[in-house]
Amino acid sequence: MHWVVRDSRLNNKVKSTVSRIRQLIELLRKRSDVGVVEQDQSWLVVITKGRDLFCEVTIPHDVLEWFACVKHQHDKREVWSDWMDYSGYDDSPKEKLEAEMADDIFAFIDRVSVSKLVLPLRIYEERT
Fold this sequence. Notes:
Layout: E1 3-7, E2 12-16, H1 20-29, E3 35-38, E4 42-49, E5 53-60, E6 65-72, E7 78-85, H2 94-114
Antiparallel strand pairs: 1-2, 3-4, 4-5, 5-6, 6-7
Helix pairs in contact: 1-2
């Protein structure tokens, strides 16, 4: 089975046999405005926001949920956090939920990386 990930910035489709989340991670690794750290159970995406703040997005390898937080650079104190999960609400197939999750993470990272950081953030925004 092939999954399709849409890169809205390039407006094209990339076919692959890897999961939508892994495709997202590979797409993020190519960006210069975010950092991706491989951890034992998750990926950590780091977005620096000026001298004082940074945003971390934690994406578990095998769970359909993700977490975001904003911390101070100097003491790592958390000033905002939120999370989203995708399973258990209806009978949607895992592939559909994973695709929604990848799209939501990509949209959040895009919003945070390109705009001025105004707290509290919104982890989710309706697609237009």
